[in-house]
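Structure ticket #2291
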Amino acid sequence: MTKRLLRRLGRQNRAAYGKLSGAVGIACNLLLFAGKLAVGLAAHSVSITADAVNNLSDASGAVVTLVGFRMAEKPADRDHPFGHARVEYIAGLVVSALILLVGAELAKSAVEKILHPAPVDISPVTMAVLAVSVAVKLWLSRFNRMLGRQIDSAALMATAADSRNDALSTGAVLLSALVSRHTGWGIDGYTGLAVALFILWSGIGIARDTVNPLLGQGADPALGQALAKMLTANPKVLGFHDLMVHDYGPGQRFATVHVEMDAREDPLLCHDIIDGLERSCLDELKVHLCIHYDPIVTDDPELNHMRQVVTDCLARLDPGLSVHDFRMVRGAARTNLIFDLVVPDSVHLDDVQQAVDQAVSRESDKYATVITFDRPAFFRSEK
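Resolution: structure written out below.
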């Protein structure tokens, strides 16, 4: 059934997938809510009623997903030049808030049931409804996971995980019902509390997954590797650095990078190469890339020697240290060695400065270093 729906959907945009997920989620969860609420009230079971309310929250989350994807597809405008794709993340955050609210209320009801237990009347109809719910939730999990993989959507993958968690929690409720029916043990309140805690834990995880991109988390390492491979595949690119990726929502990623090329190359040729790299990045990786051109002097023996002196010194000090934008400014009495230095968080800047200055001074006292220290907060690689 899932594959037939995906075939009918074809190659439409990501908003179509989000709308389909939302519509299916609303329909399934409302039906499960009605069925569980009916049998839960009839059986006087707080765990079944809690599971029913959880399905209602899932239906609300599906509404948020549906609206979120619809808003996310709006094109860029004057007030939002990078588009509205981050609304998808906000939708996921709202879903997590609903889950946390429901989990807290269910935990409160479960504790009251533990303190004031009441008999639970479990019928075959009740168990059948719970069994059907588990099957539906497992299908919803698989359905949303397939949709999420098709469009690389964190929101849909979170929805898939939530449906899987619901299947597990409903399975626990079903087990509790069977135990109560055959043993008479009053574990309904404890099962309801376990389900509520599980819901809270799920809500916290979903909130974390949606807050991180909103706060500006680092780009996916796989994307960094793909960008590095694309840039260094061109023989004219001697290296690159300061690669920064900005995520404005699914399908709206922007990146900047400094690309090093031989200073002797024709600037028009370099410009043409850079334009080609930017177009390829958008076509193949769906990333809007802006490249800064850094001309590198490669035929100055003195500069090359001093760069090697600095590089060797850093290699002995820590393999994570790296240099870029190395240049030399000669004066009447002093020659400045100017470069940027990427320093891992575990290395002290003063130690690096002292080691480099000592290595340079051993060559000649005419050299002085002017170092700009960078922390490796973004991707960096050299050819």
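Closing remark: The longest strand covers residues 253-262.
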